[in-house]
Design goal:
Length: 408
């Protein structure tokens, strides 16, 4: 998910850089942006699959579901939703560049997390009983983002550029939020009256506290504490307040034309709606696959995490390869903060409104893995520079999680 964090650097517009005596750059074109052919292909394919499943999905996925039909349906749905997710990230990135902060990052965050909430809600409200799908998805996101993707970023960036610098204050802020939100949402329920559940009043209170805290964090991140999340000067671990760019420094007013904004917004919605319409069919196939393979129920959460965060993960690894470690940290650690800050309230509210059972408490083994992940992340980002060895340790912890997922 492109997370709700400002870009590592702010590039002033060419018109502000021009000296008084220099020739002014030509006025930007007012024509709407040219949409890449790949965007039209993704959009067209997504809606063709929606039409196909709307007309014939009931027959294709009718009981008893054949293994070949289930596998073919899963392949088509998985590929389509992944492609649409890439399209969502692409268009949200366009809007972020045109609108600047804080609106751009808000669009990026809501676009990605909305996909996760849609998929979780589809499974939670589907024909089967999966009361743990919310906690399984959130825990899978933690292990995938904080260990697999972060480990790949540290290894890939370290092998190409050596030790890479980052903003230690911002990393500590992310980790502090992760400790508090993850502990409250995933560990605390095990020590309350229910078996890993919140009561109605508890769920409403935790959802409210989590949502408000995340909103405060988001506001400070985009405004008063924006400097904590940008790349520091070489040799420094922090960014002085005077160096922080203005909140609207990334905006390019000349590009924020009405037609261009409407086009990007329409394409963004055009990519999200197919995901919404196909999520129910994917939930049916996931239910069948988990039961037929006698796989752990947590596998459903892992699949959702992979679908949602694959585009974001690729972007983070590319940032590390481009020697933009701060951006990679913003994407990885920020992705999990957004996941907990927005998904937990959404799942708890869905449970309250539909009277569905929602189990949030993770198992003792998962508590140990979560504690190891948080402790390792704190040690990895406690200094000023990253290293390949730190990345190798994160990857080893993810491999342990993957093994125990099927052999606990």
């Amino acid at each position: 998910m492109r997370h709700s964090s400002p870009p590592a650097t702010a590039t002033p517009s060419s018109s502000r850089d021009a000296s008084p005596g220099s020739a002014q750059p030509p006025a930007p074109s007012l024509r709407p942006q040219r949409v890449p052919i790949s965007t039209w292909l993704k959009l067209g394919w997504a809606w063709l699959v929606v039409i196909a499943f709307s007309l014939y999905g009931g027959d294709w996925l009718a009981e008893p579901l054949a293994p070949t039909a289930a596998l073919a349906a899963f392949g088509a749905l998985f590929f389509t939703i992944i492609a649409a997710s890439f399209g969502v990230v692409h268009e949200a990135d366009h809007l972020a560049h045109k609108l600047g902060e804080p609106y751009g990052t808000l669009i990026l965050t809501l676009s990605i997390v909305s996909i996760e909430v849609i998929l979780i809600a589809s499974v939670l409200l589907g024909p089967g009983e999966f009361p743990t799908i919310g906690r399984d998805s959130i825990f899978a996101v933690m292990m995938i983002i904080a260990n697999l993707v972060m480990g790949l970023c540290l290894v890939a960036g370290g092998l190409k550029h050596g030790e890479q610098e980052f903003n230690a204050q911002g990393a500590r802020a992310y980790l502090s939020m992760i400790v508090l939100l993850a502990g409250t949402a995933l560990v605390l329920p095990n020590y309350l009256s229910g078996a890993g559940e919140f009561t109605g009043p508890q769920a409403a209170t935790i959802a409210t506290i989590t949502g408000v805290l995340y909103a405060v964090f988001l506001l400070l991140q985009m405004r008063g504490e924006r400097r904590l999340y940008i790349q520091p000067p070489p040799g420094a671990m922090t960014v002085a307040p005077a160096r922080a760019p203005r909140p609207d420094a990334d905006a390019n007013p000349a590009e924020a034309g009405g037609a261009s904004l409407w086009l990007s917004s329409a394409l963004l919605l055009g990519m999200i709606v197919p995901i919404v319409l196909l999520a129910h069919h994917l939930a049916i196939v996931i239910d069948y696959g988990v039961a037929a393979a006698n796989a752990p129920v947590a596998v459903g959460g892992v699949l959702i995490a992979i679908i949602v965060f694959t585009p974001e993960s690729i972007t983070a690894v590319k940032a590390a390869l481009n020697n933009e470690m701060q951006r990679a940290i913003n994407l990885c650690l920020g992705a999990f903060v957004s996941t907990v800050g927005l998904t937990v309230p959404a799942v708890l509210v869905i449970g309250l409104l539909t009277d569905k059972q929602v189990i949030m408490g993770i198992s003792p083994m998962e508590i140990v893995l979560a504690a190891l992940t948080l402790l390792l992340s704190m040690l990895s980002f406690n200094g000023q520079r990253t290293s390949v060895m730190q990345g190798a340790m994160h990857l080893a912890l993810f491999a342990t999680y993957g093994f125990l997922l099927f052999n606990a």
